[in-house]
Amino acid sequence: MLDDFMVRATLAGIGVAFAAAPLGCFVVWRRMAYFGDATAHAAILGVALSLAFSMSIFVGTVVVALLMALTVNFLSRRGYAMDTLLGVLAHSALAFGLVAVSFLSGIRIDLMAYLFGDILAVSRGDLAVIWGGALLVAILICWRWSALLTATLNEDLAYASGINPKREQLALTIALAITVAVAIKVVGVLLIAAMLIIPSAAARPLSQTPEGMALIAGLIGALSASVGLRAAYVFDTPAGPSIVCVAAITFLVSSVLRGLRTAR
Amino acid sequence: MSLVKMRDVSVSYGGKIVLSHVSLRIAAGEIVTIVGPNGSGKTSLLRTIIGAVKPSQGHVDHAQGVKLGYVPQRLHIDETLPITVSRFLKLPCRLKHDAITQALTQAGVPELFDAQLSKLSGGQFQRVLLARALIGEPDLLLLDEATQGLDQRGSAAFYQQIEQVRQNTGCAVLMISHELHVVMSASDRVICLNGHVCCEGTPAVVASAPEYRALFGTGTGGALALYRHEHDHSHDNCDDSHDHQSTEAAE
After folding, report:
1. How many domains does chain B have?
2. How far is the C-alpha of A238 from the C-alpha of B225, rounded, in Å?
3. Can you give the pLDDT at residue B219?
4. What is the complex's ipTM, to 2 decimals?
5. C-beta separation of A190 from A207 below 8 A
6. Is A251 within the bounds of a domain?
7. Which residues of chain A does B84 touch, with a Cβ-Cβ cutoff of 8 Å?
8. Do B72 and A154 touch (CB under 8 A)?
9. B69 at the A interface (CB within 8 A)?
């Protein structure tokens, strides 16, 4: 059944959705949305470097995304305002990445595939990388879940319970870099942050517990991937953006539901 | 045998010294209160004890296997994070249903078991934080202005609860308080802090110490004394000379 490109694409989308869901919840709770964006934008530089040195794109993007996240963490402790810092770093990384790609004269690469994803061209190998990465992220987040949640609620409470919030932050950063690397093929660097944030934001009004919110976000993400792909096939629209559009519609629906509930 | 021992601890944030050469011990079962004007390093002192702040000099020693319970000054729960009180109390380790009910009862709010954390009032929230601090059966309970935002009745009830908890569990309590009448009636020992330890001892001793009077005025009966903060004073009984940072009190 993996011979069908639609089946492979759907499986890839679902894999990314499940990795992105719990991580996306933390991104929302910790107000790191632009941090996710910056990490994702840096990945295009990773793509250029991987192609230049003929490395695996997965490894290159993980490394550059991780470096980006660590740089942001480091500089934010040096007293730069977070939004300015992210604005500078995210867009410079994207610009440098695009310039770097233009130097790669020998190789013809489809830039659009990296900016907006190329989910319909997912191979069996890509699928293995995506599911492997997603599994790795899921294991990392599940393992650190309680400590991460405590550190997210309050750093001092974490310290008092013997948890080091900085170590938890690092775990989250690594998970984010891996997610970015596996999601490039599916939605592209410009829309990765959307896969992180929109399902989690849509899940918020429907959930009572943190675990519930992560689970519902996963389901919404998987639903968006399946429905978005089907819609892209039927209406002949670009696949990655179609997935994000469906996610945005679920967000709208859940927000309206919440509005109705509070009005009652 | 002391639970926590600070030896000659100094703490600075970005070159600004907030604590200098602080030494103190907390013994099992005693209630110690830290008083001092705003910006005198009270919160930094507690954060140093829980390990959130690394001292730039000196050591903080915890007795072997000592368990800390911490109630922070204020805690903002983001509206985007859905979490019930019982789930909050289960962090970071899983606990039995009974243990949670018991801790909530001890803190005086058993009815909040299923409530959403972001929907609680200030007083309810402080009690839930207390329950969370109590749940690990701590040897030392650290309270950072735990009654901030409570009215007088609420805070009196809160301190009664603390006294009750101490009687039941025998844990030591180290608290920061602005309410001098509470301090003077409920503490075994008072530490007067202003970047350094100005004076310490039983409430009666501290209340009559010139360093304390210099910081809080001569009246110790009411909380208002806190705001009658005189800046110029000499320490008659201290051999070190220093300036107290002036704090502008809002009257």
Report:
1. 2
2. 70
3. 52
4. 0.78
5. no
6. no
7. 208-209
8. yes
9. yes
Q: Please, are residues B63 and B2 in contact by the beta-carbon 8 Å criterion?
A: yes
Residues B91, B33 within the same domain: no
Q: Two tokens at A214?
A: 């992560």
Helical (H) or strand (E) element with B18: strand B16-27
Q: Give me the domain span that covers residue B2.
A: 1-67+139-162+169-238
Residue B135 banded pLDDT, cuts 50, 70, 90 = confident
Structure tokens at A71: 């740089």
pLDDT tens digit string along A171-204? 999 999 999 998 888 888 888 889 999 999 999 9
- Report residue B158 as tokens: 């809160």
Cβ burial B74-83 (10 Å sphere, 16+ → b, else e): eeebeeebbb
- In angstroms, the CA A215 to CA B132 distance is 26
Of residues B144, B137, B122, B112, the one with CA closest to residue B44: B144
Termini Cα distance of chain B: 42
Residues of A in contact with B171 (CB under 8 A): none
SS3 for B11?
strand
- Its pTM stands at 0.82
pLDDT of residue A16: 93
Whole-number Å distance between alpha carbons of B160 and B158:
5
The better pLDDT of the pair B162, A144 is held by A144
The answer, for A255 touching chain B at a CB cutoff of 8 Å, is: no
Given a contact cutoff of 8 angstroms between Cβ atoms, the answer to whether B181 and B224 are in contact is: no
- Per-residue pLDDT tens digits for B140-187: 999 988 877 677 777 787 888 888 888 888 889 999 887 777 777 778
Interface mutation vs chain A, best among B74, B79, B80, B130, most A CBs within 10 Å: B80
pLDDT at A196: 93
- State whether B87 and A209 contact (CB < 8 Å): yes
B132/B150 same-domain check: no
Which residue, among A77, A144, A157, A207, would best test binding to B if mutated, counting the most B CBs under 10 Å from its CB? Answer: A157
Percent of chain B with pLDDT over 90: 14
Q: Return phi, psi of residue B140, to 5°.
A: -140, 125
Residue B93 counted as domain residue: yes
Q: Cα separation of B192 and B210, whole Å? A: 11
Q: Taking the alpha carbons of A212, A213, A215, A219 in that order, is the dihedral positive or negative?
A: positive
- Is-contact B190 B183, C-beta < 8 A? yes
What is the number of other CB atoms lying within 10 angstroms of the CB of residue B137?
Answer: 11
Tokens (6 digits) for A250: 């679920």
Asked if the Cβ–Cβ distance from B80 to A157 is below 8 Å, we say no
Whole-number pLDDT of residue A198: 95
Tell whether B83 is covered by a domain: yes
